[in-house]
């Protein structure tokens, strides 16, 4: 299981448990909260009615005036109100009045007049000067049929002479409770969903960042060229920097060891030739023979210098993980510049040159490296092109890449040599002299092409050889 998935699962568990406990706690508090608020309103209403009815109750005229009719009319009213999107089409308060003995003397429902309510807490406690309230079921078998009752004392000079009770069924509150619970569940689910989405994005980002770093480490272990991932601060940037420093130190040590071994091996032949010629020159010999040995020393010294310079250039390119600059390079102008630099050699061999690259074709890259790579490619082609032969440069844009082709008229390359041409120190004999080059030119070209995110292909074609560079 990936680290990102593990983090996401832990995050899901945390969000799920937190959301469950929070929502469950809030849901359990909704119903009591609504009932407490309603009870507070009932207290106010009961005390208001106690003051309104006090004089008529004290005079004993409640049933003789219009109070029964008024309360009955009140119970029949249809408010046609809309409260928070919910319709209210009837009043739900029941109001009844009991005397000092708990006998009902007035009832808005008209069903309890004359009954003894002294045993109910709303009457019993109020008559004793305490807060009287109760919640009773109208149907003992139905938990949703409970009704809240709140009593308020009717006083005469401080003496309690009766009780006014205001009752409200809890079923009238249920629509508001249900609506609040639905909205809470909706918003709660939305917040949990957003939290999980954020957690998924965070896990994806972290997993992707670690995957890039892992891919970089794997590429380094396989010897592939790849740029170090870039992060904006934090531990990931520190880790990437540390890995890059470790790679640089390890590769640098191995690289130096490999190049010292290679350079030692390649310098053996020219050094042996120089030493042999120098020993022979210490003896007496004809002037012509002496000049020949001196020429051998000069040519082998030049070969050693060229080998060292090319090794240094190749080492510089191989150690780099990316381009130092990216600018638009006019490809036609660059090729023309290289052809002018080789004009003497081209004219001396009477070569025919064709350059069909569009003037507005641009290549994004590092100009210095591109100039060196194409220069090496041109020199290699000139070495194998016969007198009065043909050189042809062409290029075109293919998708997001530029495809550059260099054709030179020459004998076909042997099949066994084709896959090895870009190997370090591998070289074929030149047709004119039979001597081999350092074998570093095409290897350098391939390294530069890879730095530019491209590839190099060499193949035999009709009447010659064609090198194709695909550059991003």
How would you sum up this structure, described in words?
This protein is α+β, with helices and mostly antiparallel strands and 472 residues long. It has three domains: 3-178, PAS domain (Beta-Lactamase, 2-Layer Sandwich); 226-321, Helix Hairpins, CATH 1.10.287; 327-471, Heat Shock Protein 90 (2-Layer Sandwich). It has helices at residues 3-59, 67-75, 121-127, 174-221, 234-281, 287-318, 331-341, 343-348, 367-384, 441-451, and strands at residues 81-83, 86-88, 94-99, 104-107, 133-137, 146-156, 159-169, 327-330, 352-355, 362-365, 390-398, 401-409, 455-461, 464-471. β13 (455-461) and β14 (464-471) form a beta hairpin. α4 (174-221) runs parallel beside α5 (234-281) and α7 (331-341) crosses α9 (367-384). The longest helix is centred in the first third of the chain and has 57 residues, at 3-59. It is rod-shaped. The protein starts with a helix and ends with a strand.
Quick tags:
single chain, 3 domains, Beta-Lactamase, 5-stranded mixed sheet, transmembrane helix, phosphorelay sensor kinase activity, Heat Shock Protein 90, alpha+beta, 5-stranded antiparallel sheet, Helix Hairpins, rod-shaped, 472 residues
């Amino acid at each position: 299981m990936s680290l990102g998935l593990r983090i996401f699962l832990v995050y899901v568990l945390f969000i799920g448990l937190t959301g469950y406990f929070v929502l469950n706690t809030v849901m359990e508090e909704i119903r009591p909260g609504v009932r407490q608020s309603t009870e507070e309103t009932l207290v106010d209403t009961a005390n208001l009615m106690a003051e309104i009815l006090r004089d008529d109750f004290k005079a004993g005229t409640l049933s003789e005036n219009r109070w029964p009719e008024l309360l009955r009319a009140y119970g029949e009213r249809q408010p046609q109100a809309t409260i928070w999107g919910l319709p209210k089409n009837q009043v739900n308060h029941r109001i009844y009045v009991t005397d000092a003995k708990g006998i009902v003397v007035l009832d808005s429902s008209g069903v309890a007049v004359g009954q003894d309510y002294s045993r109910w807490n709303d009457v019993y406690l109020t008559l004793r000067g305490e807060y009287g309230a109760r919640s009773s079921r109208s149907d003992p078998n139905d938990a949703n049929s409970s009704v809240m009752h709140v009593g308020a004392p009717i006083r005469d000079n401080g003496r309690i002479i009766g009780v006014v009770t205001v009752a409200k069924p809890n079923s009238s509150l249920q629509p508001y409770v249900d609506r609040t619970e639905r909205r809470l569940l909706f918003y709660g689910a939305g917040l949990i969903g957003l939290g999980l989405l954020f957690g998924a994005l965070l896990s994806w980002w972290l997993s992707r960042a670690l995957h890039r770093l892992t891919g970089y480490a794997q590429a380094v272990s396989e010897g592939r060229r790849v740029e170090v991932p870039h992060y904006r601060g934090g531990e990931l940037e520190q880790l990437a920097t540390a890995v890059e420093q470790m790679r640089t130190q390890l590769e640098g040590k191995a690289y130096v060891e490999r190049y010292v071994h290679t350079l030692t091996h390649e310098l053996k032949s020219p050094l042996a030739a120089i030493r042999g010629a120098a020993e022979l020159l210490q003896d007496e010999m004809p002037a012509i023979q002496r000049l020949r040995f001196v020429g051998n020393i000069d040519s082998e010294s030049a070969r050693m210098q060229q080998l060292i310079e090319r090794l240094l250039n190749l080492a510089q390119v191989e150690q780099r993980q990316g381009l130092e600059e990216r600018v638009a390079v006019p490809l036609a102008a660059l090729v023309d510049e290289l052809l002018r630099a080789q004009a003497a050699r081209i004219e001396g061999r009477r070569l025919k040159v064709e350059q069909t690259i569009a003037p507005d074709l641009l290549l994004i890259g590092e100009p210095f490296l591109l100039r060196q790579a194409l220069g090496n490619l041109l020199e290699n082609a000139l070495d194998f092109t016969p007198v009065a032969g043909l050189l042809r440069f062409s290029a075109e844009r293919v998708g997001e890449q530029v495809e550059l082709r260099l054709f030179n008229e020459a004998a076909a390359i042997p099949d066994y040599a084709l896959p090895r041409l870009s190997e370090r120190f591998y070289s074929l004999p030149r047709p004119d002299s039979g001597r081999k080059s350092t074998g570093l030119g095409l290897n350098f070209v391939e390294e530069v092409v890879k730095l530019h995110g491209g590839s190099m292909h060499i193949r035999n074609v009709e009447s010659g050889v064609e090198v194709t560079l695909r550059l991003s």
